């Protein structure tokens, strides 16, 4: 289809992309909204002068400072009855109203200059591959089909991971993905050394065969991530970790932050809104808390982006208006004033006190 690449064209493009360092896109590099430094933006995918773009580590991709996370939690507040059994993973992805919602959200992302989608589940891969048909040239697609990756025992060998990726590409009608980031156990140190070696070998195979342009993992295990980045720098180009408005960076040389910088890794932050726990409303269009929740969302985005080392937070968004709101945050003053800091700290203390049991692990990411 128009705007899509076959695998051979993609491999050629990847070779060309490797030369992008000649443009000066090295280390922590940012093109701010409005491009005040007059940087050459011709190689930035879906460039919009109202958006900020950050270099995604050694991939040399320039990624929008906010991206679209694959999750669509609370979407049933916008598209009633879209969750089978009340579970967001059971969303009726073939339902026309669901498809229209995802298409409209992706469209607004493109209009705002957002250029990356991170799909984490099989349902997300299928839904976003469909929403991107005919306009893949506007978005990078991050891929993980976690149900067929190493969280599950039957998918922990090299051959099974190869099979998983090929099955997913075929089912989604994709010839390649921009980033394959395998979803490990949240505590990835639970994996055996052989399982990790299978992950690394699968990522290496995917790059060599043109199935993935770049590779990485998702994990919530700081010491283990640090060790893996030092051991497998060529295969781990991108990492997904939690990153909330409570997260603080430890800048000494022993921390994960320093290793991310040293290994030149792209860094995406999941759960920026603590899986929606930050918000007082239910995200429905007529929520009486909408204005207050929108402000909290913008404060969080501004707080996270005050760390120049992070590539982008990846919030799940369920309406075009939510896309507008996070895009607005990128243009707002980056540093929070004292009143804003106090408000965000007070609200995050509330979030920490009220976190559901299955999300209390977020507290482990208060320091990076």
Description:
This is Oxidoreductase, aldo/keto reductase family. Residues 102-344 form the NADP-dependent oxidoreductase domain. InterPro entries: AKR2_Oxidoreductase, NAD(P)_OxRdtase_dom_sf, NADP_OxRdtase_dom, TAT_signal. By secondary structure, the protein is an alpha/beta fold. The protein has one domain (7-365): TIM Barrel. Helices cover 36% and strands 12% of the residues. It contains 10 helices and 11 strands. It has helices at residues 7-17, 96-111, 122-131, 158-172, 193-208, 222-231, 256-263, 290-305, 320-331, 338-354, and strands at residues 30-31, 53-55, 62-64, 68-69, 116-119, 140-143, 177-183, 212-218, 238-242, 266-270, 312-313. Strands 4-5-6-7-8-9-10-11 form an 8-stranded parallel β-sheet. The termini are far apart. Mean pLDDT is 91; it is low at 1-5 and 8-25.
Write the layout of secondary structure elements.
Elements: H1 7-17, E1 30-31, E2 53-55, E3 62-64, E4 68-69, H2 96-111, E5 116-119, H3 122-131, E6 140-143, H4 158-172, E7 177-183, H5 193-208, E8 212-218, H6 222-231, E9 238-242, H7 256-263, E10 266-270, H8 290-305, E11 312-313, H9 320-331, H10 338-354
Parallel strand pairs: 4-5, 5-6, 6-7, 7-8, 8-9, 9-10, 10-11
Antiparallel strand pairs: 1-2, 2-3
Mean pLDDT: 91
**What's the alpha carbon Rg, rounded to whole Å?**
19 Å
Order of helices and strands: HEEEEHEHEHEHEHEHEHEHH
* Class based on secondary structure composition and strand pairing: alpha/beta
Proportion of strand residues: 5-15%
Sketch the major β-sheet.
8 strands, parallel
- By DSSP (H or I, 4+ residues per run), the number of helices equals 10
CATH superfamily: NADP-dependent oxidoreductase domain
CATH architecture: Alpha-Beta Barrel
> Structurally, how many domains make up the residues?
1
Enumerate the spans where pLDDT stays under 50 for 5 or more consecutive residues.
1-5, 8-25
The CATH topology is TIM Barrel
Helix content: 25-40%
Count of individual beta strands: 11
Strand order of the largest sheet: 4-5-6-7-8-9-10-11
**Shape, please?**
globular
CA(first)-CA(last) distance:
43 Å
- The CATH top-level class label: Alpha Beta
This entry's quaternary arrangement is single chain
Protein name: Oxidoreductase, aldo/keto reductase family
InterPro entries: AKR2_Oxidoreductase (IPR053135), NAD(P)_OxRdtase_dom_sf (IPR036812), NADP_OxRdtase_dom (IPR023210), TAT_signal (IPR006311)
Organism: Thermogutta terrifontis
Pfam families: Aldo_ket_red (PF00248)
């Amino acid at each position: 289809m128009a705007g899509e690449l076959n695998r051979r064209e993609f491999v050629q493009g990847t070779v060309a992309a490797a030369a992008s360092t000649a443009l000066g896109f090295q280390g922590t590099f940012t093109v701010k909204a409005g491009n005040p430094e007059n940087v050459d933006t011709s190689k930035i995918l879906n460039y919009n002068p109202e958006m900020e773009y950050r270099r995604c580590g050694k991939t040399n991709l320039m990624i929008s400072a906010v991206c679209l996370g694959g999750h669509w939690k609370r979407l049933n507040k916008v598209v009633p009855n879209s969750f089978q059994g009340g579970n967001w993973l059971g969303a009726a992805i073939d339902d026309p109203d669901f498809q229209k919602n995802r298409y409209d959200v992706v469209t607004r992302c493109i209009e705002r200059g957002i250029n990356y989608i991170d799909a984490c589940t099989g349902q997300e891969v299928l839904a976003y591959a469909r929403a991107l048909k005919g306009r893949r040239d506007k978005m990078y697609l991050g891929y993980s089909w976690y149900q067929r990756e190493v969280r599950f025992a039957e998918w922990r060998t090299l051959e099974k991971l190869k099979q998983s990726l090929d099955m997913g590409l075929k089912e989604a009608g994709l010839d390649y993905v921009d980033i394959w980031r395998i979803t490990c156990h949240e505590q990835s140190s639970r994996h055996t050394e052989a399982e990790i070696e299978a992950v690394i070998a699968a990522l290496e195979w995917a790059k060599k065969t043109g199935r993935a342009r770049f590779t990485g993992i998702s994990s919530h295990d700081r010491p283990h991530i640090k060790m893996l980045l030092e051991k497998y720098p060529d295969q781990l180009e991108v990492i997904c970790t939690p990153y909330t408005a409570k997260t603080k960076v430890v800048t000494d040389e022993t921390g994960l932050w320093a290793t991310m910088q040293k290994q030149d890794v792209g860094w995406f932050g999941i759960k920026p809104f603590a899986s929606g726990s930050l918000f007082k409303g239910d995200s429905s269009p007529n929520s009486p808390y909408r204005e207050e929740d929108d402000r909290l969302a913008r404060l969080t985005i501004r707080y996270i982006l005050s760390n120049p080392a992070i590539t982008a937070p990846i919030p799940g968004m369920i309406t075009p208006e939510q896309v507008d709101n996070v895009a607005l945050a990128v243009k707002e003053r980056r540093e929070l004033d004292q009143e804003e800091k106090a408000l965000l700290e007070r609200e995050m203390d509330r979030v920490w006190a009220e976190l559901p049991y299955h999300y209390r692990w977020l507290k482990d990411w208060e320091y990076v």
